[in-house]
Design goal:
This protein has about 400 residues and is of the alpha/beta class. Helices cover about 35% and strands about 20% of the residues. The chain binds ligand PMT. The site of ligand PMT has 27 residues, from helix 10, helix 12 and strand 16.
Length: about 400
């Protein structure tokens, strides 16, 4: 992705670190935030410094962490107030049961809770603790209080805990935490903040019998990248997908399998969406009937399966204000075929990609796209990451949304 222009470029983020074994993972979070272009200001409880030293955060972020509420920082009379006013958002990771309790009750006796209380922008917390502590009624009451006040919880996850026990209390993975921070930063003032975008991804699977299906080579990578790019600009994104990739953070996922299921999900979500971007490879045909039992090979040398046409989802879905973006997967006459599909599917834009190339199209991380519009313009783009393709497609969607008013 282009970090220089990503949602964290130029942001100031307060990273609150509290005393948990998972504190070492906050170092990776800090590093990823810095790499994404953010200025990271770390605040730590004394207990956190028992697990990771301030020097590590100083080295990774380039700024001295605040640990002692009485120590002057040389710049501000009250550093925590200055940070709370200047930062775009604050993340507490890992957040212990103790810090959740103090934040919920406004007790501000360390640098993390002081800054949390002074914070003007969004507060996100990623808890990590023993499963029993997380389940405890006192913790859960504090969680509810904080949620009611608009604090966003990232996890905790179910999994193996430091005690060796399996349960809820595990810290979310740093990469996922950072994706959630990108989504939160995008929602602050991203170019698509407030817009609702539905994206489709993956190849539909049309059942032949309980174990076989008619499918295609789509991995879902293109659609997921578009969904992430839209999320990073602040859009409320629903990803209607038949792919088996991990759900992107900060994106609602509607899993489907067949073209018929995808049609129903698209119709449901398009009704409340500003734009529909169909990166999915929808099977044009499905078996007339899926057998209830696994079909035996028997003595047959050949096997014919009768297929029936699937509905054309993007052509079917209507909406006076809906901006429709189709993809065209072609192996020849790329632009001519895409132009025809733009008209047939009544789309505003069509994104043509040559799926016979080895570095573009199906299942790779890069793509080479040409964006065609209704006015006959063709924007032929060089090879780039699928995320960057998403960025370029969303630039055009944004223009259309602005023109629509
Ligand atoms: O998922 P990846 O591995 O990352 O691969 C990405 C991709 C190559 C699948 C993607 O970039 C792409 O080209 N998607 C569209 C594939 C396709 O089905 O193209 P098409 O030319 O057959 O269809 C044209 C458009 O109509 C597409 O937007 C498609 O979603 C839509 N369609 C097609 C058939 C149908 N019954 N209903 C539809 O809505």
């Amino acid at each position: 992705m282009s970090e220089a222009t990503g949602p964290l470029a130029g942001r100031t983020i307060v990273l609150g670190v509290t005393g948990s074994i998972a504190a070492y993972k906050a170092v990776e979070v800090a590093s990823r935030l810095v790499q994404a272009g953010a200025t990271v200001r770390t605040v730590m409880t004394r207990a956190a410094t028992e697990f990771v030293g301030p020097a590590t955060f100083r080295g990774v972020t380039g700024h001295e962490p605040l640990v002692d509420i009485w120590a002057p920082d040389g710049e501000h009379a009250e550093p925590h107030v200055a940070l709370g006013r200047e930062a775009d958002l604050m993340l507490v990771t890992p957040a212990t049961a103790s810090v959740l309790g103090r934040l919920a009750h406004g007790i501000s006796d360390d640098c993390v809770t002081l800054t949390g209380l002074a914070m003007r922008g969004p507060l996100l917390v990623a808890p990590a603790m023993d499963a029993g502590m997380w389940a405890n009624a006192a913790t859960q009451a504090n969680v509810r209080t904080l949620q009611e006040r608009g604090v966003t919880f990232l996890g905790p996850l179910e999994g193996r805990l430091a005690s060796g026990e399996i349960g809820a209390g595990r810290l979310m993975e740093p990469v996922t935490i950072v994706d959630h921070i990108k989504a939160a930063a995008g929602r602050l003032d991203g170019a698509l903040a407030g817009a609702r975008i539905a994206v489709t991804a993956g190849g539909t699977r049309e059942p032949v019998d309980p174990v076989r299906f008619v499918g295609n080579r789509s991995s879902g990578k293109m659609g997921y990248a578009v969904a992430e790019a839209a999320r990073d600009r602040g859009a409320d994104v629903v990803l209607i997908t038949s792919a088996e990739l991990a759900a992107p953070a900060g994106v609602r996922v509607a899993p489907v399998e067949t073209a018929q299921e995808m049609l129903e999900a698209v119709e449901e979500h398009a009704a409340t969406s500003d734009a529909l971007i169909m990166a999915a490879a929808v099977a044009d045909y499905r078996p007339v009937e899926a057998a209830k039992e696994k079909q035996k090979r028997g003595g047959r040398e050949t096997w014919g399966i009768d297929l029936v046409r699937n509905p054309d989802i993007i052509a079917t879905v209507q909406g006076e204000r809906l901006i429709k973006v189709a993809f065209a997967a072609e192996t020849q006459d790329l632009v001519d075929n895409a132009q025809k599909k733009l008209v047939e599917k009544n789309a505003h834009l069509i994104v043509a990609n040559d799926v016979s190339a080895t570095d573009a199209g199906f299942a790779v991380d890069t793509n080479r796209i040409t964006i065609l519009d209704r006015d006959g313009n063709q924007d032929e783009l060089p090879l780039m990451s699928k995320y960057d393709c998403g960025v370029r497609i969303l630039d055009r969607v944004q223009e259309l949304l602005a023109a629509r008013g």
